[in-house]
Amino acid sequence: MKGQSLLLALAALPASLAHTVWTDFYVDGVGQGDAVAIRMRKDPKTASFPVEDLSSNDMACNVDGEKGVSLVSTVSDGAMLTFEMRSYPNDPSMQPLDRGHKGPCAVYLKKVDSAIDDPGYGDGWFKILDYGYNKDDDQWCTDKLIDNKGLLSVALPKGLKGGYYLARPEVLALHNALKGDPQFYTGCAQIFIESTGDLVPESTVSIPGYVKAGEESVSYDIYNDDNSKYPVPGPAVAKLSSSSSAAGTQLKAQMTQNEGFKPKDAICENGDWFGFEVPSYSDEAGCWASGEDCWTQGKACYNDSPVTGNDPCQTWQDKCQAINDACNAKNFNGPPNKGKNLIPEAKTIDIGLVLPTSGGGVDSTPNTAADVKSSAPAAPQSSAPAYTSAGSEDGGFVLASSTPTAYATTPASSQAAPAPTEKPSCPESYYCVTSTTTVVKTEVVYTTVYKDTSRQGLHERRRR
Questions:
Q1: CA atoms within 13 A on the CB side of 191
Q2: 108, 203, 283, 326: least surrounded by Cβ within 10 Å?
Q3: pLDDT, tens digit (0-9, with 9 covering 90-100), for 146-186
Q4: 108 with 211: CB under 8 angstroms?
Q5: pLDDT digits (tens, 9 = 90+) for 26-46
Q6: Closest CA to 133 of 365, 288, 295
Q7: pTM, entire model
């Protein structure tokens, strides 16, 4: 009897509710998948940390964001994009951001020749949404996003020049801005807009460069100054024009998407990893060879897992174990469930609140189902699903044909401003604990507000 075991360990996931990361996005309420077509930090220990150097290229698409991912999501003209932020990348049930992190949010676009190859940083960015502080309800944009389960939605302007874009959500936490620690949380979604329009921004900005250290927007005293006068960072929401003299016309419209497609024969996926059916077999040697092929792919899945987790890898592991079991049972007609698609159906959600296009530092209130279509840059037209308030408890949008997805929530962990970001040492005034757990089934163990958590998956297979 021959035996072999496979030990795969995952690095500790970030465990601080003080931080957050943009993990995925939705198109007209339909999920693209965790870590699919979106750039984020790759180091699990720092995935949710903010960008600290405002002059760094990391300001564009986050640390590691200069390199694109393999997929590009196709979106219709005027589609609704919804970005999700999480404090724990692999656990959407946790509070998305600490209540002490107060500040504005924004969404930018950049027209590019390739959503995969463009590094993101540099000129060409234009803003399609910003929101600062609302005096009427004494809430910052971050307060509203926390109440909205970490979801930030914006309707793409109708009539944009078709082609590849990077879409960049942004949150700025100002709780320690006076101490020189403005905290930017950002990332980039890779999209292809199917549009015959020719609108481009009249002006663009460079990221980095659109905001500089020491400016009022990143050093504001939110505790003692009049927050209704807060100036949001960066440019105003862009004015669009079809004029040949407008900025961005040097980039041609692309009518046909030719990159970023999911492999047609993939039957499992996890971020940038894809699993493919193993060879068929009719004898013992072929059975074990197919099993070996399966386990090799599974190892790559675990090794390449994004910070959002490895649940698909566990599903793939079950497939491999079924092949081993068949080999041990002398059943050499396989593989079992040949060609079965292991990719789960796309999740459809209630996107909830949709903020007005520009909230800035003026008195403004979020859109409701009654007025959002007139105040958003452009509501989805006939090519996109209709939005309605039916079924929405908070008056936000729900896809008319969808069933809202329930999320578990947790109380805010703090109402006061947290200490400045310190890494890798333990932040001042916090008691830090490192917890290491070895388990058969991958899980996350939460201990304190700041901690490291290790996850290990132990997978064994035997063959005779």
A1: 31
A2: 283
A3: 999 999 999 999 999 999 999 999 999 999 999 999 999 99
A4: no
A5: 999 999 999 999 999 999 999
A6: 365
A7: 0.77
Q: What is the pLDDT of residue 359?
A: 74
User: Are the C-beta atoms of residues 265 and 279 closer than 8 Å to each other?
Assistant: no
Residues 6+ apart with CB under 8 A from 258: none
Nearest to 95, CA basis, from 179, 17, 203, 154: 17
User: Which tokens belong to 53?
Assistant: 């150097």
State how far the Cα of 303 lies from the Cα of 317, in Å rounded to an integer.
Answer: 13
For position 252, what pLDDT does the model report?
85
Window from 6-15, 27-36, 333-342 with minimum mean pLDDT: 6-15
67-71, 75-79, 331-335, 441-445: segment of lowest average pLDDT: 441-445
Token pair 């460079």 in the structure block, residue: 206
- What letter does residue 278 receive in the DSSP assignment? P
Residue 78 has pLDDT above 50, yes or no: yes
pLDDT band at 347; cut points 50, 70, 90: very high
Q: For residue 376, give the nearest of 177, 156, 167, 172 by alpha carbon.
A: 156
Residue type, 217: S
More confident residue, 269 or 450: 269
Q: Which helix (H) or strand (E) holds 317?
A: helix 311-328
Side-chain half-sphere exposure of 378, counting CA atoms within 13 A: 18
Prior bond to 424 cis, omega within 30?
yes
**Across all residues in the chain, what is the average pLDDT?**
80
Cα 251 to Cα 161: distance, rounded to the nearest angstrom? 9
Distance CA 45, CA 299 (A): 21
Count how many residues are written for the chain.
Answer: 464
SS3 295: helix
Phi and psi (nearest 5°) for 188? Answer: -135, 125
The whole-number average pLDDT for the span 406-419 is 37
pLDDT at 319 over 80: yes
Neighbouring C-alpha atoms within 13 Å toward the C-beta of 154: 24
CA-CA-CA-CA torsion sign (249, 210, 364, 93): positive
**Hey, what domains does the chain have and what are their CATH numbers?**
2-8+419-463 (no CATH), 18-260+347-399 (2.70.50.70), 266-328 (no CATH)
Contact 197, 77 (CB under 8 A): yes
Q: Three-class SS of residue 86?
A: strand
Higher local confidence (pLDDT), 7 or 51: 51
Name residue 398's beta-bridge partners: 388
The secondary structure of residue 173, as a DSSP letter, is: E
Tokens 């917890």 sit on residue: 435
The reply to whether omega before 335 is within 30° of 0 (cis) is yes
Which tokens hold the place of 357? 């296009």
